[in-house]
Amino acid sequence: MADQRIGIIGGSGLYHIEGFTEQKWVKVKTPFGSTSDDLLTGRLAGRDVVFLPRHGRGHRLLPTELNHRANIWAMKQLGVHWIISVSAVGALQKKYRPCDIVLIDQFIDRTKQSTAHTFFGRGIVAHVSFADPICEELRQLLLQSARALKARVHDGGTYVNMEGPAFSTRAESISNHQAGYDVIGMTNLGEAKCAREAEIAYATLAMSTDYDCWKVDEAHVTVEMVIANLHRNADQAKRIIAHVIPTIPTTPDWKCHRALKNAIMTDRKLWPKKTIRELRPLLGKYL
């Protein structure tokens, strides 16, 4: 069903998945501005899916230029209830080798753009629970698929979200390593926050590409290193996505799908009409 879709956010190469049929690029206008690119709808493994190239086709957008609200709003408008994120990360611990997959379950926020990571304000106040920022049910399904395919996968981990676009200084990287954090990236926290407010289940396939720069006996991270290992990881990510999609329920009935139920503080009678119109894909069932 087109209103029970599964979303995929990642690099543009990911939509070249065997069996991804009926492809159609769709432009979605949002009240929050432009999405990273048009969204690609289609069918995969018997389900309706929507793919979004996170940085745009051709990788045109910096991490700080990503419009998470527009991207997630568009996904919600197209009937997406589950999102699988595929992201390159730097490993902050020795056990995560390049091309390993880390199924993260926590975030550390090192960004300065908190207002761009919420749909609320403008007369409606909401505070969603974010203690467990990754949908555990979806994460477990990804873990089962990765293990079934014999991928080198790690169960759990903390993702440090820095802003970029420059990579870490060595002092920052060593500090993150010593703190016991697991991986570092520049994009997923904003997506996860907006997905939670949109009542979309969200989980990340964090693809290790390098050791950042904390490991003095390894070459420090470069763009060439990231791209080379991402290409090696791409086929593995595609296989996991194709394997997991048939295992995702057809009815959105997880805790994440009810995140707004007790989160909205503002008296319903005081909700501004303009904000209601902007947030109708999110608030529809509460109106």
Helix content: 25-40%
CATH fold group: Rossmann fold
- Helices, by number, come to 7
Gyration radius from CA atoms, angstroms: 18 Å
CATH architecture: 3-Layer(aba) Sandwich
| Low-confidence spans | none
Mean pLDDT equals: 94
CATH superfamily: Nucleoside phosphorylase domain
Categorize the overall geometry: globular
Compressed to H and E, one letter per element, the order equals EEEEHEEEHEEHEHEHHH
CATH class term: Alpha Beta
Count of individual beta strands = 11
Give the end-to-end Cα distance, rounded to a whole number of Å: 23 Å
Main beta-sheet strand count, sense and barrel state: 11 strands, mixed
Structural class: alpha/beta
How many domains comprise the coordinates?
A: 1
Task: Assess the beta-strand content as a share of residues.
Answer: 15-25%
Give the key terms.
single chain; 287 residues; alpha/beta; Rossmann fold
Structure description:
The protein is α/β, with parallel strands linked by helices and 287 residues long. It has one domain (5-275): 3-Layer(aba) Sandwich (Rossmann fold). It contains 7 helices and 11 strands. The protein has helices at 68-77, 136-148, 170-178, 188-197, 223-244, 273-278, 280-283, and strands at residues 5-10, 21-26, 39-44, 47-53, 80-91, 101-103, 106-109, 153-155, 158-161, 183-185, 201-210. Strands 1, 2, 3, 4, 5, 6, 7, 8, 9, 10 and 11 form an 11-stranded mixed β-sheet that branches. Helix 3 links the parallel strand 9 (158-161) and strand 10 (183-185). Helix 2 crosses helix 5. The chain is globular and about 60 Å long. The two termini are 23 Å apart.
